[in-house]
C-alpha cells in the first residue's frame, strides 16, 4: 500500500511543499468557476522496503461482466463555460530555475515595399492593369512616368519605369522650390522633404531652391498628363457614295476602300459561348471575349473590309470593318476569312478566335470606333 502524504512521519518532508502553486486556489475566474490547484507533478517518497510499484488489482468475474459506465460530467459547471475556458490560453509560469521555450520563438516581419525605381521589360500578354497590379501601383502612375507609351498598345520588349509607390517622378528643368513642385502635384511640401526616396532633401525646407537637373520623387502626387492612345492612321475622305476609309497599322492594311455604310445596329460577333474577361476602360479600348480557339467570329454589322491580316501593333491577326461612321475591329484571331475590299453582311463569318499578337490567352478583342476615337462597345450592344 502506498504512503499517505498526510500520515508521513514528522521527520519526512513533502518534496512539493517548497514549490509555488501555478494557480492561486483563491483565484476565481469568470462565471464563478473555481480553478483547482494543479495535481502534483512528482510522486511522494515511499517508505523504505516497499516495492516502487504495485500490481493493478484484478477484476472479479462479476465486475468484468458489468457494462462500462459512461463518463460522468460535473453538472455544477455549464458546458459552455468549460468550452470557453478550454479556448482561453492558459497562463502558466515555468518552475523556478527551469529553461523553457518562448511561445513566439521568432518574429514575422511585415512585407516591405520596394526601395527604389526599377526598369521593367514588358512580357507577352502584359497589359497596363496587369503590370500595375503586379507592382502594387495604379495604372496612372505608370502613364505619368513613361513618355511615349500607348496605353492600348504595349509590346513585348518595351521598357517601363516603375516607381516604388504611387506618385510622380519630377525632374527640374529650371530652378524650382520644393513648394512649387508640391503645388504642381497637389501634395504637401513635407511629403517631398520627409520621403525616404529623397535622402538628399532631408534637411531641406519648402523654400529650398533646387537647381536644374534634380530628380524628385513626389509620393502621392497627381499629374495632369492624359493617357495616349495609339492611332493606327485612320483616314476618311470624300462624302456620300464616294466616301473612302483606310486603316493603317501593319501589312493587313487595305488602303483606301469604299465605305457604303452599314445598318446602324450591331450584334455580338460570337456565338453565346463566350465570357467577358475585360471591359472597356481608360486603359483598354475595347472588350475582351474569351472563347475556345477556333470559335467562329461574325461581322457585327454589314460593311466593307478595310483591314485583313497581321497588325504590327499588338492585335495579331485582325479584321477591321467600315460601317459608315462606325468602325469595328476584331483582334487576336487565329485565322482571317475575308479579304480586302470585300463587302460583308451582318453575321458573315470573318475569322476565328485565337491567341495571336500581344495576347495572354484565347479571346476576341472587339472594338467600336467613331472615326479615330474608341467607344465603349456596351453602349452599342448587350453582351
Molecular structure report:
- The chain is α+β, with helices and mostly antiparallel strands and 383 residues long.
- Among the domains are: 118-219, Membrane-bound Lytic Murein Transglycosylase D, Chain A (Roll), CATH 3.10.350; 234-379, Glucose Permease (Domain IIA).
- The chain has six helices and 20 strands.
- It has helices at 61-65, 79-87, 128-135, 139-144, 178-184, 189-193, and strands at 118-121, 159-162, 167-171, 176-177, 209-210, 215-219, 234-237, 244-247, 257-258, 275-278, 287-290, 296-298, 303-311, 316-323, 326-333, 335-336, 343-344, 349-352, 363-370, 373-375.
- The strands form six sheets. Strands 10, 11, 13, 14, 15, 17, 19 and 20 form an eight-stranded antiparallel beta sheet that branches. Strands 7-8-9 form a three-stranded antiparallel beta sheet, with no helix packed on it. It has a three-stranded antiparallel beta sheet with strand order 12-18-16, with no helix packed on it.
- β13 and β14 (316-323) form a beta hairpin.
- The longest helix has 9 residues, at 79-87.
Give a short summary of the structure.
This protein is α+β, with helices and mostly antiparallel strands and 383 residues long. The chain has six helices and 20 strands.
Named CATH topology of one domain: Glucose Permease (Domain IIA)
Total number of helices: 6
Oligomer: single chain
Order of helices and strands: HHEHHEEEHHEEEEEEEEEEEEEEEE
Ends distance? 88 Å
Radius of gyration: 39 Å
CATH architecture of one domain: Distorted Sandwich
> Would you tell me the overall average pLDDT?
80
Query: Which structural category fits the helices and strands?
Result: alpha+beta
Number of strands: 20
Low-confidence stretches: 1-33, 43-52
Beta-sheet strand percentage? 15-25%
> How would a crystallographer describe the biggest sheet?
8 strands, antiparallel
What is the general shape? flat
Please give the share of residues in helix. 10-25%
CATH superfamily of one domain: Glucose Permease (Domain IIA)
CATH class of one domain: Mainly Beta
